[in-house]
Design a protein that fits this description.
The structure is a single chain. This protein has a domain of 135 residues: Orthogonal Bundle (Cytochrome Bc1 Complex, Chain D, domain 2), CATH 1.10.760.10. The protein has eight helices and two strands. Strand 1 and strand 2 form a beta hairpin. It binds heme C. Heme C binds next to helix 5, helix 6 and strand 2.
Length: 277
């Protein structure tokens, strides 16, 4: 009996403890969940703060730390933003090539590719423009050039490149856009007929000696590769015009319907670097 009585007592204590535990745990959980949902001006209780609170400056906010009060800091003067120059690994591969191109684009050391100039002539006045483009001319390049020309040049110079009243915008201008098929822009031995000069006009625009702009620059939209592509397309337009032997008729748009315009296709096939680079 004595033993049985002790056992009953122990069981009662155990049951009481258990019930107490449930109450404490239950109220703790209610309390914690209550903290999440209530509206209060007091700082929230954070049981797992992790990195919620740390000193930081929010974009566009005022900073009390810096004298000029800008929280968004400018890079230190002279900084050249460039990702991973030193990280280009040895060997080759697509990634290495891509990084290599980024780097070449940044340094712009190749005067012909980046400026259309004869190497070493940048300091001459006037500089010498490269007779022929430094990129391989193929159908892909010409087609890209056609697309870019039709986007950026046709409004003024017309789809056929004839200028004057050929382009919708060009025909409203006092000084009419030039005829890109004119011999002046074909003769590579002349000042204006080189690949490099055409490239230069696309990238820099045309400026009068008094500084007035006569044709806008398309540098913002046409990168070096695309500018060379446009030059190759202008050469194609010139040849297509010769193939037709006449000014293109109204609504006759060379290159707009690739594959259906046989003179255009012939011209594409015959436009190349002339066997030189
Ligand atoms: C907003 C109209 C306009 C657009 C767009 C335009 N041009 Fe011109 N372009 C002109 C005008 C106007 C002239 C002639 C300016 C003059 O003679 O004073 C000209 C002249 C030129 C010349 C002759 C430069 C010289 O020194 O004789 C070339 C080459 C040329 N444009 C190529 C292009 C190419 C390629 C594009 C497309 C990337 C283009 N233009 C887009 C208006 C334009």
């Amino acid at each position: 009996m004595i033993q049985a009585g002790n056992t009953t007592k122990a069981m009662t204590r155990w049951a009481l403890n258990g019930a107490l535990g449930v109450v404490v745990l239950g109220s703790a959980m209610t309390f914690m969940s209550g903290c999440r949902g209530d509206r209060t001006d007091a700082p929230p209780r954070q049981f797992f703060p992790d990195m919620d609170d740390q000193p930081k400056l929010k974009a566009q906010s005022e900073s009390k730390f810096f004298e000029d009060k800008r929280s968004q800091r400018l890079p230190v003067e002279g900084t050249v933003a460039f990702g991973s120059t030193g990280l280009i690994p040895e060997g080759s591969g697509q990634w290495v090539e891509m990084k290599g191109k980024d780097r070449a684009d940044m340094l712009k050391a190749d005067e012909t590719y980046y400026f259309g100039l004869v190497a070493g002539s940048a300091s001459q006045d006037p500089p010498a423009y490269a007779e022929r483009m430094p990129v391989e001319v193929n159908k892909e390049l010409i087609m890209r050039g056609m697309e870019r020309f039709n986007i950026y040049c046709t409004a003024c110079h017309g789809y056929d490149g004839l200028g004057n009243d050929s382009g919708l915008v060009g025909r409203m201008m006092n000084v009419r856009p030039v005829n890109l098929l004119d011999n002046k822009y074909r003769d590579r031995s002349g000042e204006f007929g080189t690949d490099g000069y055409l490239f230069h006009i696309i990238r820099e625009g045309l400026w009068a000696p008094d500084g007035a702009n006569r044709m806008p620059s398309y540098k913002h939209a046409v990168d070096e590769q695309d500018a060379w592509a446009i030059v190759s397309y202008i050469r194609t337009l010139q040849r297509a015009f010769d193939a037709k032997g006449r000014r293109l008729g109204q609504g006759e748009i060379p290159g707009q319907t690739p594959g259906q315009d046989s003179e255009m296709n012939q011209a594409i096939a015959s436009t190349d670097n002339g066997g030189e680079k």
